[in-house]
Amino acid sequence: MTEGKPALTDVIAEGASEDEVKSLAAALERGAEHPLAEAIVQGAEDAPKREAEGFEEVTGKGVTGRVDGAQIALGNAALMAQIGAEFSGQSATVEHLQSDGKTAMYLARDGAVIGVIAVADRIKETTQEAIRALHAEGLRIVMATGDSEATAMAVARELGIDEVHAGVSPEDKAALVEKLRKGGASVAMAGDGVNDAPALAAADVGIAMGTGADVAVESAGLTLVKGDLTGIVRARRLAEGVMRNIRQNLFFAFAYNTAGVPIAAGVLYPVFGVLFSPVIAALAMSFSSVSVIGNALRLRRLKL
């Protein structure tokens, strides 16, 4: 939904300098495979470079590791609660950043929160266009994200998304897909990250962004090379065109055979005295094949 070029927008330090907060966050994120990680690393280019040891990605929560002998954690409130860090003093700041549609993260050192950083990515202009087109075709749009509810709702309001599930883990996303399918819905899941892979595999149609993580691409059945959601609209229209074309081709094939075989056998002779040469029947059969091929080639002119 976004341009895929997130940037570090806010660094709020408490008990440490801004450069130190950026340096520690970047040390952890160098080992992560996520667009937000790259944004943090790039945003900390002017800060001292450090290396992390024992890097661990805590799915749906954040990352942890050791930097200069200290245990560092960068992530959401769930991660802070997991490591026993007190973060109530910074929660209002985080909520304010999230209400602006930013992804805000706590940074803790040895169990104490020393800063908050925020990353934001602009919504693509084509995303609203794609969602409007999908709504016009009668589809219901559901967003499942690991971001906070405040961040998710800010994006959902702007885009007109029908239903939002925030703060969900990869397993929760897959469970949501299964729940929708059990309810009788046909589910197409679009995603670009490692966290989306289980849901992509569970959906009727998994749609990966070509600009996303390799594991997401491997889990999907369809890849949008440009990572543009309007590609979903075009892919759906193409699929509908192909199915319509298949039905037409089946009609052509059966119509020629249903009419041609009895006529070639002489069914008209007793009534009309007409008897076609087998050559005519062979030509009709050939014309059937030509009609099917010609009709299939019309897909090249299909307006997507």
Automatic annotation (TrEMBL):
GO terms for cellular component: membrane. GO terms for biological process: copper ion homeostasis. The keyword Glycoprotein does not apply. The chain crosses the membrane at residues 250-269, 275-297. The keyword Plastid does not apply. InterPro entries: ATPase_P-typ_cyto_dom_N, HAD-like_sf, HAD_sf, P_typ_ATPase. It holds the Pfam family Hydrolase. Keywords: Membrane, Translocase, Transmembrane, Transmembrane helix. It is found in: Membrane. GO terms for molecular function: ATP binding; ATP hydrolysis activity; copper ion binding; P-type divalent copper transporter activity. NCBIfam families: ATPase_P-type. This is Heavy metal translocating P-type ATPase.
